[in-house]
Amino acid sequence: MATISKEFEEREKRRAKTMEEALTSKDFYNLKPILDKDPDISVIWGQRSNGKTYQCLLYALKNFKKSKRTFVYVRRWKEDIVVKSMTKLLSPLPVDEIFGKGYAIKFFRGAFILYNEDDDSIEEQTLGWAVALNQVAHTKSQTFDKVQVIIFDEFLQLKSERVLRDEFDAWEQTVSTIVRTLQDVKIFIVGNSIGKYSPYFSPYGIDPNAITQGEIKEIMLTNEEGEPTKVCAEWCKYNPKIGKRTSKYVRGSKMAKTGEWEIQDVANIPHTDNEEAYEQLLCSMYDAVMGINLGIFVRYARWYTLEVVDGLYQEEPHEREFLVIRQTPKQSSYYHLTNVKDLTYTHWNNLPLMWGDIKDRIGVDIDNELKMGRVYCEDSFTGDYFYHTYLQYLKVSTRDLL
After folding, report:
1. Which site among 227, 244, 267, 333 is 20 to 30 Å from 306 CA-CA?
2. pLDDT of residue 114 exceeding 60
3. Which residue spans within 183-311 are E strands per DSSP?
4. CA atoms lying within 13 Å on the CB side of residue 108
5. Domain end: 258, 286, 306, which one?
6. Are residues 298 and 390 in the same domain?
């Protein structure tokens, strides 16, 4: 058994070294450009497996070596904070190069512990901790000593993954528990470009539609006392070498291959030359996660074609009517959903009830139109926002409040 264990350990070390060499090559993400701008909060997204998380963890370890200041690694779910995952997370890092021969890191009872495998007399040190947002109530009771780096990984959720209820509030409570009165903490919020729907963009003043790939955008925020917070948002530059390696096994994912947003294309809104069209706002939904208002419009269009009837040309009218979803500053006068209680609509967050009222009173069955594929979005991002907003209101109305 000892021999097998030793062989496994050596194989893991070789695997980690190979990964480390790959991640430190010039082909992978470089944290220096965003660090040079000296932000308080860095929001970074892009291609999968391009080294974003690795570079942030490497920065945290080097910072501990230099200043003895610790770090906190954050994930959304407690299931992500397990010994196996956390050990694998740090295995590619060059621990012995940073701290010296014989040093290694283990994950024990929620903490990353630095120890020396060759010398038991060297005292163990706590490098940092790992916490989950969905355990914020338990995090409040923890003490985090001398923290200077916070890394929130996978902030952009998978399509099948839910955001937490009041997630940004849970994030800020976690940060305040960690930071307390410190003023020199560096926060890194990292994710893959899966979709633009995220509770973290609006509060940090980030418009993901206004940032081009490879750009770092600087944003200055101020609190109630006028104190500044500098946010830098970066959509990582596409690296073709990583995309080429990934595409050997991944065929359809734009995010994995090129770092593009993983959003399904939507059909263009039907249009005929010379048509006369107008739209009427039917209902609207305020999405507090993205800070936008989505409107469902009824679009009426009429156009004419020349037809030969009894040897004579005459204009033949054609009409069509369908639903269009747009981002809009307008709110429907009668049918509007919001997660803030007001008097605009009696049942303020019950989506099935509102759509049922529209069907009964106006004769438009939105649910059926969606099922039949007769609802169009102005662009793919609006379609993505609508999909998540729709799911969120359905969860609220069915009392699934997680």
Report:
1. 267
2. yes
3. 186-192, 216-222, 228-235, 276-287, 292-309
4. 10
5. 258
6. yes
Nearest to 154 by CA among 206, 186, 192, 187: 192
Same domain, yes or no: 379 and 245: no
pTM: 0.72
Beta strand pairing call for 186-192 and 147-153: parallel
Q: What is the pLDDT of residues 375-397, one digit of tens each?
A: 999 888 888 889 888 887 876 65
In this predicted structure, which of 129-133, 186-190, 204-208, 337-341 has the lowest mean pLDDT?
337-341
Same domain, 284 and 163: no
Q: 270 in a domain, yes or no? A: no
* Residue 65 or residue 48, greater confidence: 65
Are residue 240 and residue 296 in the same domain, yes or no?
no
46: left (phi over 0), alpha (psi -120 to 50) or beta: left
265 lies in some domain: no
DSSP per position, 212-243? -TT-EEEEEEE-TT--EEEEEEEEPPP-HHHH
Instruction: Return mean pLDDT, the chain.
Output: 83
Structural domain span for residue 352:
276-397
Task: Tell the burial category of 114 from Cβ atoms under 10 Å away from its Cβ (0-12, 13-18, 19+).
Answer: buried
By CB neighbour count within 10 A (0-12 exposed, 13-18 middle, 19+ buried), where does 157 fall? buried
